[in-house]
Amino acid sequence: MLVKKKSQGNTTFNDGILKSVSIRNGGILKDLSSYIPFGQKTVGYNRFFRAYNNDIKISKVVVVPFESELQDADYVECGFFRETNQPSIYKVVQCQELLDSKPMCLQLSLEKVKAKFDDRRLNESTN
User: Fold this and answer.
1) Which residues pair with 5 in a beta bridge?
2) What is the pLDDT of residues 17-59, one digit of tens each?
3) 10 Å Cβ neighbour count for 54?
4) The overall pTM is greater than 0.85
5) I want to staple 118 with a disulfide (CB 3.0 to 4.6 A). Which of 27, 61, 64, 111 is the partner?
């Protein structure tokens, strides 16, 4: 008989904010979403080394609310509340639905982009 998997507990989104950005020709052109809160998770040993064997360097794993419209290969700008440095640009390597968490959320595996980008956005906000 199949037994329903118990959830890991309540998920919180209080570690920082991120937003999806459009990048082309070495510059950030515009924001594709408003600010989305996220919670940081531990990068698991198996996840890290399986990606590493495929030349992917997973830097962070974060969870965002389920309604977020993020997909694989999107670029996101993350600002962490506990870090005082400037927001960093990450590429979404994997977007996984966590339907058994409370509340339901998306788990994003992020790879840090080491290139520097010119900020070509206007002072418009999508909020």
Assistant:
1) none
2) 999 999 998 889 999 989 999 999 887 777 777 777 777 888 8
3) 8
4) no
5) 27
